[in-house]
Amino acid sequence: MQWEVVIGLEIHAQLATRSKIFSGASTAYGAEPNTQACAVDLGLPGVLPVLNAEAVNMAIKFGLATGCTVAPRSVFARKNYFYPDLPKGYQISQYELPVVHDGEVILELEDGGTKRVGLTRAHLEEDAGKSLHEGFEGVTGIDLNRAGTPLLEIVSEPDMRSAKEAVAYMRKVHSLVRYLGICDGNMQEGSFRCDANVSIRPKGSDKLGTRTELKNLNSFRFVERAINYEVERQIDVIESGGEVVQETRLYDSVKHETRSMRTKEEANDYRYFPDPDLLPVEITEADIERVRAELPELPDAKRLRFMEQYQLSAYDASLLTSAREVADYYESVVTASGGEGKLAANWVNGELTAALNRDGRDIGESPVTPESLGALVARIVDDTISGKIAKDVFEAMWNGEGEPDAVIEARGLKQVTDTGALEAMVDEVIAANPKQVEQYKAGKDKLLGFFVGQCMKASGGKANPAQLNELIRKKLAD
Ligand code: ADP
Ligand code: MG
Predict the structure, then answer these.
(1) Which pLDDT belongs to residue 44?
(2) Residue 158 CA: which ligand is closest?
(3) Residue 197 Cα to ligand 1 middle (Å)
(4) Disulfide check for 150: which of 15, 114, 364, 396 has CB 3.0–4.6 Å away?
(5) Nearest-CA neighbor of 386 among 458, 456, 304, 464?
(6) The pLDDT value given to residue 478
(7) Which tens digit of pLDDT belongs to each residue from 263-304?
(8) Where are the alpha helices (H) located in 203-352, listed in sequence order?
(9) Which atom of ligand 1 is nearest to the CA of 199?
(10) What is the pLDDT of residues 412-423, one digit of tens each?
(11) In 3D, which of 167, 173, 74 has the Cα closest to residue 119?
């Protein structure tokens, strides 16, 4: 039997507001446990939640960037359940009327095609606290700092057909929320996390199979692995005559397996009802237009602009626009180089990215500024140095030896373009290789490369290859 994989993701993006969604308590990460949860976050008697307007603006931003409809009126509801990290006994979320709904995300596939993933909805809710297991013996610690932190839960349609597509979708949303500045995207700290709903069905069927929901996926790699593991497991279950049970499963990244956590609750288990302490959220056309005016250039638009403005391939442009910091860095390099879009792209996607990866740094921590890299590119273009020598200069810049001109000067790397000096070099090489000269003159044109290579070697890589080419050709034509 041929199986088709069906995946829908629920992404939780922590909104980058300074204070919580219904209180003034700080959302800063890493404080001493239980120092940042106030009476409102704990739901103590007599308190009233007040909605953080900035969280609503951020949700509208996301909605506009994904072609969603922004609801003129949405409603907060209480989702009731008991858990130690939720002392209130309910989470404030949105249920029937989410703040934005019915949008889409377009993925670029490796084969150059595109794929549309529908967004069912994105709703606002508060986060719960955290259970702490490490460092406790026989008990569990509870840290309520995270309680009340604003989340945007982004729910996709079950449109993805492989673990790879799910990861591509997740990366796209990750890039988008960071462009929009509504989430820092830090997955280690849990600011961006996802639950994956996975089912399989016979190929060609249009009925959905029974799904399981995988929790605890806090890296792109784990999402891919957990889904692949789960697909294999479901195929095994069905092919050995069993049935997939709708349940929540936990991914164990150490053992690389998913384990049953609990059978899936139905919505009516949560006894959702509108929160009587909060008014419906009213969003006017004017509100929407105000937010629209604040939107930055989005990744898709930027990618197309880069292709057009700098004559880049789709591949180069998508690498450069995957994160806003990279795109900004690149454009500063172009400016500093005097408008060398293509060469600047090669350097940012090539040497710079390799060096960053090698040292495990973010682009914001690059020891080479975009202005310096642009200056280096300019020195290649004006023939001060060759592209090959430029790699040595780059290494030196990376290691703190200073600006490109200073490195070129200090190391004597300036390209030899003086015709007299080059001519002497060529004469020497011709004299030293009579056999090759004979073969060349007999028609073996390919040997030109050999002579250029010998001269380059003799010059320590500093000779200008274009000039050499011409000189050698002329000399051997005599
Ligand atoms: P819940 O709120 O109980 O988690 P939803 O109906 O809101 O359930 O769906 C959650 C996610 O599960 C959505 O992303 C949806 O696309 C996905 N989903 C629903 N049914 C299936 C299925 N049969 N296989 C895979 N994903 C599914
Ligand atoms: Mg769910």
Answers:
(1) 93
(2) 1
(3) 6
(4) 15
(5) 464
(6) 67
(7) 766 767 899 999 999 999 999 999 999 999 999 999 999 999
(8) 220-239, 285-294, 299-310, 314-321, 324-337, 341-347
(9) 24
(10) 888 887 888 888
(11) 173
